[in-house]
Design a protein that fits this description.
The chain has one domain (about 5-90): Alpha-Beta Plaits (2-Layer Sandwich). The chain contains two helices and five strands. The chain has helices spanning about 20-30, 50-65, and strands at about 5-15, 35-40, 45-50, 70-80, 90. Strands 4-1-3-2-5 form a five-stranded mixed sheet, covered by helices on one side.
Length: about 90
């Protein structure tokens, strides 16, 4: 395993279309931990930890998003793995 962590900001039509739930389901399915939340500026932010290859696979899924979403930009910042998260959750 190659542990990694990333913060991800996704912009476009990503609020009100089930995007957070999509991120949660796909993150858990990829065996990742962290959180997803809506931002006041209309974007969605994610903090994710796990194997780097799994995170890269997750990023490809996020670029497509759920059917009603329109992803305009995916900004990824790789960070040092902290191991602070043991599950994936949706923040309100």
């Amino acid at each position: 395993m190659n542990p990694a962590s990333a913060t991800i900001k996704i912009s476009g039509r990503v609020q009100g279309v089930g995007f957070r739930y999509f991120c949660y389901r796909r993150g858990a399915a990829c065996g990742l931990a962290g959180w997803v939340r809506n931002d006041p500026d209309g974007a969605v932010s994610i903090l994710v930890e796990g194997d780097r290859a799994d995170i890269e696979k997750y990023l490809e899924e996020l670029k497509a998003g759920p059917p009603a979403a329109v992803v305009a930009d995916v900004d990824v910042n790789w960070r040092e793995f902290s191991g602070q998260h043991s599950s994936f959750e949706i923040l309100m």
